[in-house]
Each structure stands twice: as C-alpha cells, then as structure tokens.
Amino acid sequence: MADKTIVITRFDPDKDQAPRKQEYKVPCEPDWKVLDAINFIKDELDGSVAHRWSCRMAVCGSCGMMVNGEPKLTCKTSINDYGDRVDIEPLANFPIVRDLVVDLDGFMHKFQSVKPWIIRAKEKAADPIAARAALHPVKGTYSQSADQLATFKQFSMCINCMLCYAACPVVANEPEFLGPAAIALGHRYNMDSRDEGQGERNEIFRGEGTVFSCSYANECSEVCPKNVDPAAAVNQAKFGAVIDWAKNLVLPRGGA
Amino acid sequence: MNVFRHDIVIVGGGGAGLRAAIEAAENHPNASIALVSKVYPMRSHTVSAEGGAAAVAREDDNLELHGFDTVKGSDFLGDQDCIVYFVEQAPKELALLENWGCPFSRNEDGSVATRAFGGMTTKRTWYAADKIGFHMLHALFQHSMRFPNIVRYDEYFVSKLLVDGGRCNGVAALDIRTGEYCTILGRAVILTTGGGGKIFPFTTNGTIKTADGMALAYRAGVPLKDMEFVQYHPTGLPGTGILITEATRGEGGYLKNNKGERFLVDYDYGVGKKAELGPRDMISRAIVQEIEAGRGFEGAYGAYVHLDLTHLGAEVINTKLPFVRELAKTYVGVDPITTPIPIRPVVHYMMGGVDTNIHGATTLPGLYAAGETACVSINGANRLGSNSLTECLVFGAAAARHAMSFSKDSAAPNEKALVAQCEEEAGRVANLRGRKKGGEKISAIRRELNNVMEACCGVYREQTSMQTGVIATAQLRGRVADLRLEDSSKVFNTELITAMELQNMVEVAETIAVSAAHRKESRGAHTCKDYKGRDDSNYLYHTMTHHDPAGPRLGKKDVVLGKWIPEERKY
Predict the structure, then answer these.
(1) Among A197, A200, A202, which Cα is nearest to A237's?
(2) Which of A228, B44, B111, B277 minimizes the number of CB atoms within 10 Å of its CB?
(3) DSSP string, B325-348
C-alpha cells in the first residue's frame, strides 16, 4: 500500500467562478486502478466529489478523465503507474458540468448526425418489415462473410468514452468538428456490407467541419483504449467521400 | 415544475428498454415514446454481457429442445407457457438484431455462427466474439436514433411511479444535471432497469445495478416474485468480480483444481458428461465444494480455482475470446494464452423480479416490466447462460406492444393529481439532499448490507444465516432512512442518487432474505444445507413478496406447467 496525493478538479457552477483543485491523501492498494482511488475519496473522504463510472471493466465508457494531463479510461489505468501525486481532471475539450463530469450534449448530437444505423435503399419504397421477411427464407438474416465483417469490425468497437475528443487538436480549436468517434461510427456503417446508406453519409462527410477538417495528428488513435484506430477510419472516410463525389460527377446518382 | 407528456414512458435504456422503445416507435409513428435512464443508454449494463444470445438457428436444433433445456435449467420453476412463447420469438428477435447491424460472428458460408453454452443441448448461442452485450446495446441504441418519436431523457433518475385511480400514469424524475424534478406522464409505463447485483459485495454487475425498478414497483404495491433465486456465475475474477464469460468453456476451456485436475470430470459433482458445459448453479456449487475440500488456490481475495484456456491456442483466444484476454491481462495480470485464469463464483443475475404475465403486464394497470427487472418467469430457479439477452428482446418487444395497446384504450391521466404527487416526491428528496443531521454514511451501510447478504444468500445457504439476514435487512431498512449526506449542491449530485439507490437495494434485499428463508428445499440457485433436494409436493410455486410497512408479506403463485413434467434434474 502506498499513500498518494490525489488532486481532483472541483467545480460546482452554483458556487465556483472557475474550477479549483482539491487534494486528498489516499492509501492506494497495489492492484488499484485510478478509478478505485477516486471511489475511495467518494466513499470515505468526501461524498461531494462528482464523477461518472459503472462497469469498471473498460466497456461502458463512462469513466474517461484526464490523468496527469492525458486522457485515460480510469478503470483501466493503474494508479501505481503514476508517482506520489496524481492529477485528475475532467476530459479536455468538453464543457464541465461539475467536478469530473463533462457535458456530452454536443457529442450526442454529432453521434446521431452521421446516421449510425443500417440504411436500406429498398426500405424507402417498401414496408421495412415486409422487406426484411424477404431476406432469408429461414431466419431472415443477411449473409455476411468473415472478410466483409472484418472491414468494419474494428470501427464497431468504439465505447464512446470520448478520450479521442479530449486528445484531438482539431476539436480543441474547432469545437464543432464532427470528431474521431462520430466519423469512425459513420464510416463503420459505410463499410458494413448490409448497409446502403453510403451516399447519404458521404454527403454529410463532404460538409463543413467533418472529415476534411482532420489534420491527421493521429492523437485519437494513440489514446483509444479499445484500438479502434479512429484516425484510420477518418482517412478511409475522406477517400470514400471523394470517390463518391467523383462518381456523382461522372454518373448521375452515383451510378445507382 | 416541468411536465412532459408522452404515450408511454420507458424507464431504463438497456437491452429491454431500447427494444421496447423501437417496437413502439416503429409500429406507432405518431406516438411519442419517452425513454428515461439514469445513465446514457450506451452505459447500461447490457454492455457487459459477453458470451452470446440464445435462439434456435441450426438444422440439428428445434424449439422443443430450447424449450426443454430452459425448463430443465429452471429446475421446473419456469412458467412453460412463457418459455414456449420465448423460444418461438427468439429466432425472429435475433434476426432483427442482425438486420439492425449487430456484428455477429459468422460461419464460412456467411450465416450467423453459434456456439455451445452451459445447459444447452446444442450450439444455439449467437455471438459477436466475446462482446455480444456491447454490440447488442450499441446496435439497438444506434438503431433507436432513427426514430424521431423516441424522446430520450438521459441522466434522469426515476424515484417514484405516479399512480392515480388504480393506474400507473407516469414517473417522478430527477434531472441529475440540474437537480430539478419533472413529471413525465404516459398512459403506460414500462420498467426495464435491470437487476440489483450491487446488493452483494462480490458481483459481475456494474455500480448502476441497484434494483431500482424492482423497488419502484414494489413500493407501488406490485409483488416481487422468486427473489430468493440469485445466480452465481461460476467464473468471476477474484477481487473485482469481473465476468469471464461462459463462452470460455463453450469454446473448450477447463476448470482445474490445485492438482491440475479437471475436477468436474474427475469428481462426481453431477454436472453431467459435458462437465464444463453444465448449468451455472451446479458448476458454482462444484467450485465451492472443491475449494472446501482443500483443492483450491489461496489468494489475496480468498480461495479460487483455475479456468484453463491454454490448450485452446492463441488463434482461438484471439479471434473468439479477445475481450477475455484483455480483461485477464488488465485486471489479474494473466495472459490466458499461456497461463490459467484465477476464478471464483460471483453474483451475476437475479432470476426474480417484478411479477409480470406473459405480456409483461404487472398487477398494476398501466405498469409493465421486462428484462432482468421483471420475472415473467422463464428463468425459474436458475437461468441458462445466453437466455437473458434474448429475454430482453422478446419481452421488451412484447411489453411495448401491450403497453401501446393499453395506452390507446385508456383515459387521459389526471394530470393535476399526478403533478401533485411528483411535487411531494421532489420535496421528500430535497430533504434528503445534503442531509447532514443523518446518522450513518452511505458507504458504511452499503458495506454492512453487502456482508449481510453474502452471509445470508451465498452459493450454499443455511437456515440460521438466512434468518439472521431477515432480521438484519429489516433493521437496515430503518437505518437507511436516516442517512448522513454531505453534498447539498443541486448540480449532478451523485451522492444523492447513491443514497436513493442504497434505499432501493435495502428494500429489495429484504425480499430476497425473506423469500430465501421461507423456501425449505433446494432448487436451482437456492441450495440449502439444511434441506437437501427439491420438494415439489410443498414448494413447486413462485414465491411472492408484497410490500408492507412491517416488512415483506409472503404469498404464492402457481407455476404454469405444460408438456414437460417435473423430473429429477440430471445432466
């Protein structure tokens, strides 16, 4: 067990003009994650600290924070990877709601804007339920090969922890930038063999503040705790959006 | 106070809640559906399910087999009409999930792949490597976004059901971000809030699993059913309780003792020839017995046994169980390709819950429930692995259909009366916020509750400790009304939420203890040292607990039998 000084950013909009720092002495066990130290503070030292967490197994995506200035999933990061003093702040590039809790409204809007669902051209004309019944005589599922699955699987692993937004230099300067996770998500559906919505999404990607705003700093992929590689998704999405645009020039309606 | 009006209100944004919302929104484009959750939907605990979701898919399988496996797994306490409906609906529901983009693993011919699971006769568990819950939740959430008539209330905590004239017509909800209460009205309400694993100290469940929906329904006069049946998953990581999926055994993993023996094979624990593919209740008992016989390993967090995957090889582990590898490396420092994983049984799932019929309807008109929060019951005394995600889909959709039809036929809510109830609730909670005059800390009471419940309702149970649990939980119910809180801020006051969650857990824990102490037999997950064997002549019924100021009042409900006659449960 090692005593560490954990420095937490505190901010209550009803009381504070600006965020301030508060220090806590925490006896950290050898196998603790950063989240365990924060939970110790919350349970034993100061019940007023506000943070989000749930699964503590690196899959719900709730507990992203800045740890010594870097975006980290706190349930996956060992506290003993750090020295005697650990600085914990809310995720960068987001408005603070309170303490370690940031405002996700902007992100949720971006997330929805890429149409993250399977789009079928035929469904527009026909009844979607009847169209589905015609898919497969027995089970109504699409056929998809392992190779087809592999083209998008990695991009479907995003847990929406938003570390990539906290790391992205473009988001820092241009808060409206669609950003890594949302682009990766749109691209994930574009690459899914079951989807026919590439045209709609590529139109979104050709808009302002989307894929072409990316400066390819690669910070997003470096901090991603799930190896989603959003930078690769953004790059592929740029290419897809350009090809689609070129096709539109040559062939009306993209040759469809 | 803000008042929001919808056709139906769904509380909980996990698998069951999202499925319900989609069902209602797709079939009723002009209806308005409120989806209220204390977390953003993608944080819901459905996200943590790993192994897969069950539905008949292969030529060598049929509905009859899935039905019988489920009935037998339930130790004949599951309702057979509900189970028949469940297995019939299951393939269609999973096909829809596939259509909506869930990245299921595939066979070589491009069809959806299935794997073996405990208690299932054949391969019928559809999977997405070892993250089915994550993919199912995200596919449902993303698909739900295409429906403009689903109105989300993210990070709103529901603390009371609003009931007037004998009908449930809305909820009192605290907007966590502002600290303000609002009234969310609907002509029907569906509870899909999950279970309450956090009642126990050692659980696979995330911190949000605090039995909220069960407590809401219970306080509104709806009975809870079969609460004594708490599932211990055989394989959790010591210390954290993090789930290591049953798919590890489905893919061929072994459980081994400190002599390196596959004890499920070498000693007669009655789990059958398939050994590691036995049902969860039996394997958890076998692990406890193996440890008590001195053949476990001693660790910092108590005794454990080994889950050995080393013979599966790197390729199988990396393609089919990559998340297991990530979890083992991150949380116990073990790479399963080369080293066995330490595991021990861990509280995972509550078979019991809000009493509903086959349509998800409760005894309170206008109130529905689905998923782990509900007890339909298809799981009886022991749930089979991979049935729960499918249950969320099948009964989430069913509850939505019936809630929508109920809402169309019912009169408009009495708004004035309901808002008055919500204002009263807001006043109660305002007094709890920052309540410095209180007696005890949240963490102290939670720790005590956890310890009481572990002693009361473990893998093996004893009459004396269950009786102690009954007395202790009743006492805790009094003490949890007098909490001491420090945070008087309105904005994102998580201490206040935690306090209300603890009150929910204590209330529900008491029903678990009372139900357990009353059932003097051993059935499924309820295994008593004092009463060996199942006693169908006296206990083939559902245990009902009704809310009463003096403590849970017990009742009975018949089990719906059918073509499968109760017999000795052997594997």
Answers:
(1) A202
(2) B111
(3) HHHHHHHH---TTTSPEEEEEEEE
pLDDT of residue B256: 98
The whole-angstrom separation of Cα A50 and Cα B93 is 39
Nearest to B370 by CA among B19, B3, B6, B122: B19
Give the C-alpha distances (Å, rounded to integers) separating A189 from A201, B139, B141.
Answer: 9, 11, 14
pLDDT exceeds cutoff 60 at A137: no
ipTM: 0.97
Helix, strand and coil percent figures for chain A, each rounded to 5: 45, 15, 45
Residue B358 to residue B208: CA distance in whole angstroms: 27
Active site residue B518: no
Exposure letters A219-239 (e unless 16+ CB within 10 A, then b)? bbbebbbbebbbbbbbbbbbe
Question: Distance between CA atoms of B6 and B25, rounded to whole angstroms?
Answer: 12
Contacts of B98 in chain A (CB under 8 A): 141-142
Residue numbers of B between 486 and 505 with CB closer than 8 Å to A = 486-487, 489-495
**Would you state the pLDDT for residue A253?**
56
Predicted local confidence at residue A245, as pLDDT: 81
Query: Out of B115, B167, B187, B233, which one is annotated catalytic?
Result: B233
φ, ψ (nearest 5 deg) of residue B444: -70, -45
**Integer Cα distance of B369 and B383 in angstroms:** 18
User: Per residue in B208-218, pLDDT tens?
Assistant: 999 999 999 99
Residues in A 34-63 with any Cβ partner in B closer than 8 A:
42-44, 46-48, 50-62
Q: Verify whether the Cβ–Cβ distance A14 to B489 is below 8 Å.
A: yes
What integer pLDDT is reported at residue A30 of this predicted model?
94
The list of chain B residues with pLDDT below 50 reads none
CA distance B148 to A11: 35
Amino acid identity at B482: D
Instruction: Look at residue A256 and tell me whether its pLDDT is greater than 80.
Output: no
For B165, list phi and psi in degrees, rounded to 5.
60, 30
The yes-or-no verdict on residue A160 having pLDDT over 70 is: yes
Domains of chain A plus CATH, in order, are 2-102 (3.10.20.30), 105-250 (1.10.1060.10)
Q: Name the residue type at position A47.
A: G
Chains A, B: CB pairs < 8 Å: 155
Question: B95 vs A139: CB contact, 8 Å cut-off?
Answer: yes
Indicate the pLDDT class of residue A126, thresholds 50, 70 and 90: very low
**Structure confidence at residue A118 (pLDDT):** 96
- Among B461, B474, B465, CA closest to B511: B474
**How far, in Å, CA of A242 to CA of A202, rounded?**
8
Sign of torsion, CA A211 A215 A217 A220? negative
Contact call for B99 and A115, based on CB within 8 A: no
pLDDT in tens, B334-357: 999 999 999 999 999 999 999 999
Res B273: pLDDT = 82
Beta-carbon separation of A15 and B489 below 8 A: yes
Q: Which amino acid is at B310?
A: T
Q: Is the pLDDT of residue A252 over 80?
A: no
Inter-chain CB proximity B206 and A44 less than 8 Å = no
